[in-house]
Amino acid sequence: MHSPLNSIPSINVQRIYDEPIIGVADGMDPLFTDYKSIIGDFHQSPEEILQRRAQDGGTPLSPDIRVVCWALPFSSQIKAANRKKEVWPSIQWAYGTRFGEELNNLLRRAVESFFTGRGILAVAPVLDSHWRRIENLPGGHTSNWSERHALFAAGMGTFSLNDGFITEKGIAMRCGSVVVNAALPVTPRTAGTHVANCLFCSAGTCGKCMERCPAYAITARGHDKVVCRRYREQLFRDFLHETCGVDLDVGECGLCQTGVPCESCNPTAKRAE
């Protein structure tokens, strides 16, 4: 990540993200069909996404469907700043989340363009006009394309108690994906369960993310998205506005992703050593 956009000079952040982790999922993996039951029947499959684009452009679709996925681990500087916080996110985390996602969007477009420029059908689902957020669900909001679930299909890690995604470089990261019509090598999925990398879910230990959550939105039963979102929208957004002098649409405070054993590694792998 050598782009000049991977820094925030105004607050002396030299690097937002460290080097990415990359994986590839088989777009025809039955897991993507299972997601329609696990997430909701509104969740798109890679085939549906490409088929729609193929029909729009009059391009034939081959059976070779892949999902190129990446994780962008936050830099040690951003994680260290947030690790010290207990109620609000650090300014470094807030800015890193906001401007880091803008960089991630540029990466999505660049990967899509890399393939389409070579005559290969490709779609970045999150940037596609058919992407939408699904509101007012009993468990909280979601969307019709989950990049974390795409990363799981690509064997890049597992979910955690707090609904985050633990890669080999930890949970403090952002992720992205592009669906392509090309026969790329698929990365293996080796995790025994969908929560294998979480110490609490897999071994009944830890639970540090529960202690770190200022909204008490994380319990042994999991993550309450409604409580989490209410805290974000009603409390710390105003704090950041007053502190930074600008409106920052921060997705989360990130306290449950920093100052925890899974911040920068897969703690179950470390525990097994």
Verbal overview:
- This protein is α+β, with helices and mostly antiparallel strands and 273 residues long.
- Helix content is 36%, strand content 13%.
- It has helices at residues 30-38, 46-57, 76-83, 91-116, 147-153, 199-203, 208-212, 225-244, 267-272, and strands at residues 21-26, 66-73, 122-123, 133-134, 142-143, 158-159, 165-166, 173-180, 218-219, 222-223.
- The chain has a four-stranded antiparallel β-sheet with strand order 1-2-8-3, sandwiched between helices. Strands 4-5 form a two-stranded antiparallel ribbon. A two-stranded antiparallel ribbon has the order 6-7.
- A hairpin with a 7-residue loop joins strand 4 and strand 5.
- Helix 3 packs antiparallel against helix 4.
- The chain is globular, with a radius of gyration of 19 Å.
- The relative contact order is 0.17.
- DSSP helical segment count: 9
Largest sheet: 4 strands, antiparallel
Query: What radius of gyration results from the CA coordinates?
Result: 19 Å
Flag low-confidence runs. none
Order of helices and strands: EHHEHHEEEHEEEHHEEHH
Approximately how much beta-strand content do the residues carry?
5-15%
User: Could you say which structural class the secondary elements and strand pairing correspond to?
Assistant: alpha+beta
Number of strands: 10
Order of strands in the sheet with the most strands? 1-2-8-3
Helical amount: 25-40%
